[in-house]
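Human: I wish I could look at a protein chain and see how it folds. This is the protein in question:
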Amino acid sequence: MVTKEKLLQISRLLAIWLFWPALAVVVWGELKPGGDMPHVWDKLLHFTAYFGLSGLAFVALGAHRRALWGAFGLILLGGVLELLQGMVGRDMSFYDEVANTLGAVTGAGVAWAYLALFGPRRLVGSRAPD
């Protein structure tokens, strides 16, 4: 039987290994030329990409302050990639960055809830046995 601790350990290892290839795919997808698609699907792709990246980063880093900085860094990366799109023949969009931001915040929230559910629990004011 898989314990909560083992599930959390496996999740963290998978998140660490999957984050970098996922980041590469997102960067490639945002900077590749062409690819006009309907407005709603484009925003959904942005939301989903940053939801996944932020969730992976949050699980890999744990529910610590550095995970919040990771989510903020992804939002910043999304903005930089939107600016770079103008250099590769694509149109940058403020609404793409809004979708990126909402995805990153939502992904961090869902990952935080997952870690809270499966992470180790400590009672307030309890001491470790001597």
Summary: The two ends are 30 Å apart (CA to CA). Helices lie at 4-31, 39-61, 65-85, 94-118.
